[in-house]
Amino acid sequence: MIWFRLVFFSVASVMLVYLLRHYVFTAIVLIYGRYSKSALRRSKWEPSVSVVIPAHNEEAVIGRLLERVVEFTYPKMKLQVVVVDDGSIDETGEIIDDFASKYPFVKAIHRRSATGKAAALNDALNYVTGEIVDFFDADYIPEYDFVEKSNEAFCDPEVGIVQTNVRVYNENKLVSKVVSLERLGGFRVNQLARDILGLVPQFGGTAGGVRRSLLQSVGGFDESVLAEDTDLTFRIRFAGFKVRYLLGLGSFEEAVDGWRGYWRQRSRWSRGHMQCAFKHVGPLMKNRNLTLREKLDGFLLLNIYFVPVLVGLGWLLAALSLIFGYGLWAGRAALIVTLIYLFAGNVAPLSEIIVGAILESRFRLCFYVPVLLIAFVLNVFICTKSLFDLLVSKFCGKKLKWGKTVHKGE
């Protein structure tokens, strides 16, 4: 059937583009990774810096992060820490108040109800005074000299936002090991490659910073979008400022350690990212501050969470071809279609993950690479449901809820 062939070749072409993208990024890091722009050079520039930490029911981890932040090596007279107790019903508020009473540069803000991370961040922006604003989620453990190192990128007046490296510290469960592998592929290879190529690295909403004046000029965080970090990335780039990624600086995070938590977290990410795709694809193509290759890669980045949906569509096409004998290459159609979606949809990202693990000498972690196939299959269902939920929300006027990741403080 003509329609079947058209759908098949269209979807297969999109998948092959992403396949090529993964391999190009992997090759770039292997060739140029050691000589990337991520290398930092110290300067004497010491702007005022505000550290913003949103926290909703984070009693298990917030104290540990604050202990690290108050021990930052940055001059305390130029450091402000703003912690938002976002409607917590546990001991989070008391822990924050205790630090605020001991350290004059720590300010505690209490919100009566939790309406999402973006809303909490916007409330914090009413109190920040620093030229640079750094953000951390409550489960993070940044390096002691995080502030001065990240400031190096801001020495370039064209840089508006900076993202740093992220590693997992609780590799004690099967799922957290999977997340660690995903982080190695995403931060050690994918983000670095985009920085080397002069594309648009993605701000992850934590372990990064932005110029306060620029953040205010673009209107702060969009509270209607679940992925407020991705949304801010593109709005700042649209404004003509660069986004940088620093490999040589970073933080440790607590990863989810169960498949239920994995589903919940990835559902929020995929819904928010899809919202950003619907919001920004049009303006992306029209924006005059971006080069053609930035637009092409930005388009692929915005639509990355639709890829698992296409993988699922590929499975459906393979089944239809096998059951009803739809054209293409007779009896071999199902096998060929399945192989295309297996390699383009699943195995291609493995190139980044495996190379990232090798470059970090995480050889033992490579034994868990086969488990990633479970995550890839799971993401097909996660992203397909997210797209369905988003369409229902869009046409029925139902607001999507922000789902918090539970942290255990292990």
Order of helices and strands: HEHEHEHEEHEHEHHEHHHHH
- Overall mean pLDDT: 89
Largest sheet: 8 strands, mixed
* Gyration radius from CA atoms, angstroms: 22 Å
Task: Kindly describe this structure.
The protein has 410 residues and is of the alpha/beta class. It has one domain. It has helices at 2-32, 62-70, 92-102, 117-125, 146-151, 174-196, 212-217, 228-238, 259-286, 292-302, 307-324, 333-359, 372-396, and strands at residues 49-55, 79-86, 106-111, 132-135, 141-142, 159-168, 208-211, 242-253. Helix 9 packs antiparallel against helix 10 (292-302). The model has no long low-confidence stretch (mean pLDDT 89).
Give me a quick take on this structure.
This protein is α/β, with parallel strands linked by helices and 410 residues long. It contains 13 helices and 8 strands. It has one domain (1-41, 152-402).
